[in-house]
Design goal:
Elements: H1 2-32, H2 36-68, H3 72-105, H4 114-137, H5 140-164, H6 167-175, H7 180-212
Length: 229
């Protein structure tokens, strides 16, 4: 079983490497909100790496399940690793989507909303970093603390939506002078950042399952798992 343990550690190492790439994409997407040109191509390049790593990790997890037929904690680790792998790939997708939206609209984050958007991005980046740490050290308590941060991200998202979609602004948009495309861009930016935090929450739920054997994905409606980008 020593070889199996070594291969599990190697898989864990690949996930950490992929997680760091996903975290870097979150950081670059924050920069993109004010200077897209500086990071756009880099985000696309890193996405290719993340996509390839997702395939490699999935194949390796399936191989280990097939060859060693693990049970108990090792089985939970491999099942969780596959789902964490998917969440990391979705985080990368959101970073790319944020950049695509900025490029398509030829815009940047609105000055009025930028502080909240940056705060959302910073929190999402912290959550991704700490979720991977919880996964590595198998810390369910840390995972629960990270999940709680998602409420802060959601609150910021709600504030942005209320400001952008306030009655006065909607009336201005209908009347004509309001810039609909600009408002829509801010909505999409906030949505991408909120989804990144949701994926970090998903990773934390996998940590709790891996460590405790408790599947909490549907136990609290405010933290429903996010299946895709």
């Amino acid at each position: 079983m020593k070889k199996f343990e070594q291969e599990l550690e190697a898989l864990r190492g690949r996930l950490v490497e992929m997680g760091e790439l996903a975290r870097s994409m979150v950081a670059m997407s924050i920069s993109a909100m004010t200077d897209l040109a500086a990071v756009y191509q880099k985000v696309l390049q890193v996405e290719e790496q993340v996509d390839q790593m997702q395939l490699t990790i999935d194949h390796e997890a399936v191989r280990l399940l097939t060859v060693y037929t693990p049970v108990a904690g090792d089985l939970r680790f491999l099942l969780s690793a596959s789902r964490v792998n998917s969440s990391l790939e979705h985080i990368g997708d959101q970073a790319v989507g944020l950049c695509h939206n900025l490029d398509f609209s030829a815009r940047h984050a609105d000055a009025a909303e930028l502080p909240k958007l940056r705060r959302m991005g910073d929190l999402a980046q912290e959550m991704v970093r700490d979720a991977l740490q919880a996964f590595v050290i198998k810390d369910a308590s840390l995972a629960r603390a990270i999940i709680a941060k998602d409420d802060v991200v959601d609150a910021l998202y709600d504030e942005i939506m209320m400001e952008i979609l306030s009655d006065d602004i909607v009336r201005q948009a209908i009347a004509g002078p309001r810039d609909i495309a600009g408002a829509l861009t801010q909505v999409l930016l906030a949505r991408s950042l909120e989804r990144m935090a949701d994926q970090a929450t998903n990773i934390c739920e996998e940590v709790i399952y891996m460590v405790k054997g408790d599947d909490i994905r549907h136990s609290h409606p405010e933290h429903k798992p996010v299946e895709g980008p």
